[in-house]
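re: ur msg from earlier - yeah i can do the 2-(butylsulfanyl)adenosine complex, just paste it... oh wait u already did. ok heres what im feeding in:
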Amino acid sequence: MTSGSDAAATRAAELRELLEYHLYRYHVLDDPEISDAEYDRLFDDLVRVEQEHPELQTPDSPTVRVGAPPAPGFRKVAHLRPMGSLDKVTDDAGLAKWADDVRKRLGTDEAVAYVTEPKIDGSAVSLVYEGGVLVRGATRGDGERGEDVTANLKTVKAVPLRLRSPDGETPPPVLEVRGELYMPLSSFRRLNERLAAEGKKTAPNPRNAAAGSLRQLNPAITAQRELSIWFYGVGHYEGVEFDSQDGILAWLRERGFRTNPFTERHDSIESVARVCSEWERRRIDLDYEIDGIVIKVDSLDQQARLGALHGRPRWARAFKWAPMTAQTTLRRVHVRVGRTGALNPWAELEPVEVGGVTVSTATLHNEEDINRKDIREGDTVIVQRAGDVIPQVVGPVLPHPPGSEPFRMPAKCPLCGADVVKPEGEVMHRCPNRACPSRGLETLIHWVQAAMDIEGVGEQFVRRLWELGLLRSLPDLYRLTAEQLVELEGYGALSAAKAVESIVRSKERPFHRVLFGLNIPQVGWVTAANLARHFGDVERLAGAAQEEIEEVEGVGPDRAEAIGEWFADEENRRLVDELRALGLRFETGEELRPVEGPLSGRTYVITGTLERFSREEAKAALEAKGARVAESVSRKTAGVIAGESPGSKLAKAQRAGVPVLSEDDLLELVAGAGSTDD
Ligand code: IVH
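and the outut:
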């Protein structure tokens, strides 16, 4: 062996190991370290090495497989037909070359029609329908075997649980349908706002958010995520016949499957090329991310004759655009103090165009993240625009400019000068001063924008009145008068009256929005709603013991403690009293009040796996009878319903002397009590 191919062998082994590692980070841990573009580059390198030295290709090379094994936690299931992947082209020349190859293989005098579909950047899933009923949903996994995520997929409203039967048609005995699950950009932004407000790790992009939501062990969490799906094909099927991709999509649409409206059929590859370049510009108008266009030969007969190589069909290609990244200079790192006192670093950039939008600022998360990526002022950096409106700095292009230094968080709060702290176990630095202007100002902005959504009263309004000293606290907002506003430039009698009127109208907003607006640490939208539902009014919440707060869905010991501490504070209680006196709502209204029923006033806890109910079904059935379902056991728990392999909650129930109920007891509870004829 020459030394040249020795080097190639070493490189191939190295690339294989790297690719395996990054696949694992991506598929199993849901926590990728590199971008797809970087991954693709490594992958392409390996393909090149293996093409030059075919003897180096091993049967387990990432180039002959399409994913990583499923993570533990879900049952693995074999797909009825493997889920392959697509070879890509990146320009018109690549597209023309593929079309030539197709023509040569089929015979040059044969007409070829193509179908183009947006390539949705989400998570591929396979759904099996038996006799028209959804029996199983799975992730793609390694292409042969995926994870059984039926319970989670059933929570996605766009997934049909049953096929529609036009003209009373008998559904096919078996049908595997494939699609791409995704999170709309608007939902993705909302999710990240919520995660950030709750002090949790945000999702880097909509694809991760969708994949992560799909693989939640608790389907109730998946259900809270706003996921959707576009269906694009079938796998195995019996009792039905198709002759074209276009025909499959039309058939699916008629049976209730969401298919993408921007699908088109073409008689020439030139027309395909036009669509591919057109969508590179148009994609920013969509409420979901696409990373290319999928092109498929329309005729199924032609598809069959073309066949596939290593699970990659010769009859299809993905036209992929350059990723939405760009390089620019990082001018300065600034630090903003958020409404909870967290110090948020952000980048001021030399303006640059990324995917059709000019970008001049980007988030930098926290000090640890900046230093892990080694981002410094003056660096040339790679900026990426994902689904979020706020672009991200991926990393520096080395070397750093001479004399540059690693980033350090300021030791003093840039607003009030207090010594900055970094609580143990947290990544964020904080200003501990509760009187810091950031708190009041940011809380007011959060209140008018996110929590109360007061029409015509936004960030600018708040900042202006803050600077004038007219607004220092939430109660101040409700004491503003039209006379005060008329004094200000830009306000007439009418606009001043309107602003005051919409502020007054915000007093009608429900209790959980008020709770969210109060800026209690770790209380985001969902927790606020759960607290409001559970306690019913602020008195009960403020007087609750930590143990009781922990009963609330999604509230662990840390969060319960933070909530307890907030209400224990004199000043906060005064704030609540003052807002209540001003007419804001501190009682749960109809919208969240539990149903009245024979089980009203009783709280149950469910542990282990039930046979005849899913968790959510059991919860819903109990709540329909007026009961509450809590996450943890306390002395007040009316009963613990224990299924197969119950967790520590069972032991806790036994210690606390709380009755333990079986699944049969549960059936009796929800069936007997409250049926209409008793
Ligand atoms: S067809 C043999 N159509 O892209 C594979 N895929 O690498 C046939 N995707 O895993 C796939 N939109 O997750 C197809 N309209 C579309 C698609 C699409 C997104 C994803 C899918 C697949 C990957 C292909």
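cool cool. The two ends are 87 Å apart (CA to CA). ping me if u need the other ligands too
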